[in-house]
Every structure is written in C-alpha cells, then in structure tokens.
Design goal:
Radius of gyration: 23 Å
Strand content: 5-15%
Shape: globular
CATH topology of the largest domain: D-Maltodextrin-Binding Protein, domain 2
Number of domains: 2
CATH class of the largest domain: Alpha Beta
Strand order of the largest sheet: 2-1-3-15-6
C-alpha cells in the first residue's frame, strides 16, 4: 500500500510537467515575443513582471510600473505584455524550465489548479500575522474569495469585476417610461421591459428591452450558486439553481428561442469600444461590468444612461451575482519574491491605499478594500462618474460569488456554459441541463480521485 502511495505523487508530478511542456510546445511560434524594454535602473534588483494587457490598457500598466520604480530605489519592475492566448502556456513552460517571471497578473481561472499543482506560492506566508488578520478583516469578501484556495491566499486582487444593469434613458423616454418607476424585483422588471422590445415588419427582434442571461450571474440571487463556502462542497443540481435556470429559460421562451438566437448572432459583441450592443441601441437594459463606465466616457460620451443593481427575484438575495477580477500571483521558483511582493502591495493598495486609489481610477477598476474606495481621489472619480457608485454599493455583499475554488474549475466552467446554452436554446430542459451537468462533474471528480488527485 505504501508503494502505491509513493508512486502516485511521482506520477502526478511527471504528468503535470509533461502536460505543461506539451501545452507549451503547441504555442512556441506564438511565444516568439519581443523582449522587455531596456532597463532604466540597471543597478537595482530586477523584478520580472508578466501581464496580458495590450493597447490602452498596457499604457496604464506601464504607468503603474513607472510609479513603483520611482517610489523606491531597491527594485526595478520590468513589465512584459504576453498575448492572452499564449500566456498560460508560456507560464507553465517557464515554471517547468526553472525560469518563471517574479510576478504575473492574471484574470483566468488558474488559482485552484496552479495552487494545487504547487506552481504558485501562498502569499499569506509573506504577511506578518497582523497583516494577515487585517487583510481578512478589511478586504472585500469577493476579493478574498477570488484569491483563496484551501484556506490559503494565492492571489491579491488589483481590480474586481461585478455586474449591474445599464439602462438607456432615451429608450425609456421613447416608450413613455420613467427611470423613477424601474421595478425592484426581477419578475417585475422583466414584465415592465416588455414595453421596450422592438420588432421589424417580419417579426424579428431588433431590440431587446431586458432579458436576463447567464445562469452564473443569476443563481446567487435565487439563493443558489455552485459552491458552499462553509462546507467546501460543490453544488450543482439544487432547487435554487433549478429555479434560476428555469426562470431564464421562461423569459427567453417568451421572446422565442429562435428569434433570440438570430438576434444575438447578428450582434457584434466585444469587450471594448463601440462593439458593445448597448451603445448601438440593441439593448435598453443589460447587465455588464463596471469597466463599461470608462468605455462609455471614451466612446459614447453623449449617451444618457443610469446604472442600477440587478434586482433579485421575489424573496431572493440582493446584491447577488458572479464576480471575477484581475489578481497578482507569484510563481514557485521566482528569483525575487520580496520584490514581487512589494510591487503587489504597491499596486493593490494593501500598502498605502490612498496612493493606490489613483491607479484604480486609471483602469476603471473596482478597489480591493473600503480604504481605497473612500480615498479622496477615488471619491472624486465617482463624483465625476456617478454610475460607478452602483458597483461600489454592491462590493461589500457576501452574495457576490466567484467560481468554486476547485482544481477542476476550468472544466466546471466549460460544462456550466454548455448546460446554460443548451437550456437557452431549448435543446434541453432546465432540469435535464443541470442533471447532465451534475453527472459530468461527478464523473470528473471520480476520475481525479482514481488518478490520485485531490478533489
């Protein structure tokens, strides 16, 4: 028995590195990247920093790096932008080869898997006992959940993403509706927005007033979700999740499955600029992230809109939904762990939140803690863009939930999206979709257990 127990960890380790190298080899052409910029402070200890931001976002990151380098005389952070599609593979190859960056910015679902595989280090080890206690007492619940795995902190958030309703005032006026009369329950909002749908002469949808979408966004409001944060158990086919998915299916069915599919397939959906269908007028009310406030300022400054929390169903939970975000990790084998940690504290606001508040306004990011949100420079930003306040009001909520912190998180996310889409297209009932998802996750957990992995 002891021989089997000894062999399994070795097999697991070999399989991990083999998978990492195989994944990376497939992207070697993509990884032929330009090197980092010339060093400005060659006498300092280098801190290599990888991130995935490009274009205007890269400029923001470079400015933050410059601020850090100017703030002290020991370390020089050297940033390198890695293509999003190749970043994870490049990271795995670098760790396997013993030459990782010192710190990396991420937003993919990597913490549970990489922490379980011992690819990243727990950051609470770098904190003094008082600092760790302060982190747990002052940082927003969602920011803590995103960075945790098995009670340890592996990622520090530098910007949370949550969703609220964006509402076009011109469409309300056109329909003779007032923003003062917007309903405060999900059922009433869906009924009220029927007046805002628009169809062409052929009966095809040309504008959706409001249609709730994405099970992961709405399950928490129904009292569900996919993880019990007290017991550490994944939960899929629960009465609450079924109620949420059935509600989404029913609302789509009112418009017609085929009509909605044709409508959505005709939209130019993108994360940036004028591609967002809300700007083009395809939606009157739509749930989206706080970064849209900054995009609207840049690309549609004349558009009149307000933001409101996505309302709960009757008897449901307020300020509930899905949360994700940007976070910083330190790989195992990093050459300058202390320099990486100093940079993380600087950017995130764990150290000097008032200074870090300015960085959050540059990116239109939601802050790590109330100390940043209440800083004068951040309050000034919110006064200029009052639509941002809606998101700040939601931040303290315990009902903002990330994906379950399990090593098979990516698998769970992929299958969840497939189940959601099957129900939304009418190919499976809500009950069938969640039942299938439950069985898929059970098989994955059984397979992992058989191979000697922790669940």
């Amino acid at each position: 028995m002891s021989n089997i127990e000894d062999i399994r960890p070795r097999r697991r380790t070999r399989a991990l590195w083999a998978a990492a190298i195989a994944a990376a080899i497939g992207t070697l052409v993509v990884l032929a990247l330009p090197g980092p910029p010339p060093r400005k402070y060659p006498g300092r200890i280098p801190v290599r920093f990888w991130h995935m931001w490009t274009a205007e976002w890269k400029d923001v990151v470079d400015d933050i790096v410059d601020r850090f380098n100017e703030s002290q005389n020991v370390y020089e952070v050297i940033p390198l932008s890695i293509p999003y599609t190749a970043a994870d593979s490049k990271f795995l190859l670098a760790v396997a080869g013993g030459d990782p960056p010192d710190v990396m910015a991420q937003w993919n679902s990597v913490i549970p898997k990489w922490a379980d595989s011992k690819l990243i280090i727990p950051l609470d080890d770098l904190m003094k006992p008082g600092e760790w206690q302060e982190f747990q007492e002052t940082v927003y619940p969602a920011a803590q959940k995103i960075g945790m795995y098995q009670g340890r902190l592996y990622g520090v958030t530098t910007g949370l993403n949550i969703r609220a309703n964006y509402i076009r005032l011109d469409h309300l006026r056109e329909a003779g509706l007032s923003p003062d009369d917007i309903p405060d329950t999900l059922e009433e909002l869906c009924a009220w927005s029927q007046q805002l749908h628009r169809f062409n002469e052929s009966g095809d949808l040309i504008r959706i007033g409001f249609m709730p979408q994405n099970l992961y966004d709405y399950a928490p409001a129904f009292g569900g979700g996919f993880y019990d944060w007290k017991t550490g158990q994944v939960q899929i086919d629960t009465p609450e999740n079924r109620a949420a998915l059935q509600f989404l299916v029913d609302e789509r069915q009112k418009l017609g499955f085929d009509k909605v599919v044709r409508f959505i397939s005709g939209l130019a959906i993108g994360l940036g600029n004028v591609e967002w269908p809300f700007i083009s007028g395809s939606y009157t009310i739509t749930a989206d992230g706080q970064w849209r406030v900054e995009q609207l300022r840049k690309y549609a400054p004349e558009l009149e809109y307000i933001t409101r929390p996505v309302p709960p169903p009757k008897g449901g939970k307020e300020h509930a939904g899905w949360v994700n975000g940007n976070f910083m990790i330190i790989p195992r084998g990093a050459a300058c762990v202390q320099g990486a940690w100093e940079f993380i504290k600087f950017w995130s606001g764990l150290e000097n939140p008032e200074r870090a508040a300015e960085f959050y306004t540059w990116g239109g990011w939601l802050p790590l803690s109330p100390a940043i949100a209440e800083a004068p420079i951040f309050r000034k930003y919110v006064e200029e863009f009052p639509q941002f306040q809606t998101f700040l009001d939601m931040l303290p909520s315990e009902n903002m939930l990330p994906m379950p912190p399990v090593p098979y998180q990516v698998f769970l996310w992929d299958r969840l999206i497939q189940a959601d889409e099957a129900a939304m297209r009418g190919t499976l009932t809500a009950e069938e979709a969640l039942d299938r998802l439950e069985r898929e996750i059970a098989r994955e957990r059984a397979s992992r257990k058989e191979l000697g992995y922790e669940e």
